[in-house]
Amino acid sequence: MKRHIIDLFAGPGGWSEGLRRLGHTDTGLEIDAAACATRAAAGHRTIRTDVAAYPTAPLVGRVSGLIGSSPCQTFSTAGLGAGADDIELCHQGLDDLAAGRDTRSALRTATDARSLLAVEPLRYALDLRPDWIALEEVPSVEPLFAHIARVLRGIGYSTWVGVLNAADYGIPQTRRRAFLLASTTHQVAPPEATHAKVPEPESLFGPGRAAWNTMADVLNLATGDVVTRGEHTGGGNRFTTAGPAWTLTGRARSWKLSATDSSPQRELTTAEAGLLQDFPASHPWTGSRTKQFEQIGNAVPPGLAVEVLLSVLEPASRSLAVAA
208-256 pLDDT, tens per residue? Predict the structure, then answer.
């Protein structure tokens, strides 16, 4: 029987693009119409569905890998962190699932329903027992990942939980995200960083890490500034394109670029935002400009996905992927 990689809350395909680079494919579960359209245009298999309502029974015995990046709006600082009030109920939901009780419906009435989506990966993991698991979320969800990891260790998984900075893996963006890695086939560990804020010299053990990739280099821009104005005509924060971009969110649609303080400012394009998230310039983003930037901001950078996936894929699968 063929076994599949299932991608919960698959979005536009950051994990899928990473898997493709490694010679693998997945099936994404995603409810947003624009994200589903983007995935279809990019050639990624998708089931449009509510992850929380999708039954796991038909998947039992058929899943080798489980990926999950649940919606982060209620937990992120960009989304005002409303989910902080729901975190204890999420912990309760995890404890209940671990004890064989599905209390999601009852708990959902007391929370922002999006917050409780953070417990869905554990439901799938307990029901499907995949060989490996890779989860990603905003850093404030790290305690929930630690909770999930404790449950997974109790049923035989090796686990690692921590926060990774995308810039340390060659992505031109200082995006920090929490990850949970788990496997039943080998000991897992975080991927080794390939880049550093300050480049490292060569040593007896080989070349040191390269410098972080800059926004200007990746977008072929003259060194200048980005002003994060939001919807306002003034104000906003400012950072230089001589380093990695700040973390992209949907609000990056209002970023203004200028080569110098005196040059006309212009908006960041969708293709440029995709490049900063490590997607190809030709990636077929679908929907309005707002929906496209929302998808880009929510995606896992494919290059970072590759590094993370190499940590959890079975050794034989990793060797074949690297050789390819």
Answer: 999 999 999 999 988 899 988 755 555 678 999 999 999 999 999 999 9
Residue 144 tokens read as 């929930």
Model confidence band, residue 262 (pLDDT cutoffs 50, 70, 90) = low
* Domain at 4-191+298-323, CATH from 3.10.20.880, 3.40.50.2000, 3.40.50.150, 3.55.50.30: 3.40.50.150
Residue 147 has a pLDDT of 98
Q: Whole-model pTM above 0.85? A: yes
Residue pointed to by tokens 């109790």: 154
DSSP calls for 105-152: HHHHTTS-TTGGGGGHHHHHHHHH--SEEEEEE-GGGHHHHHHHHHHH
Instruction: List, in order, residues 6 or more apart from 122 with CB less than 8 Å away.
Output: 94, 97, 98, 148, 151
Among the residues of the chain, which ranges form H helices? 14-21, 33-42, 87-98, 104-108, 120-128, 142-153, 215-219, 270-276, 289-298, 302-312, 315-323
Q: Is the pLDDT score of 172 beyond 50?
A: yes
Domain ranges of the chain: 4-191+298-323, 215-282
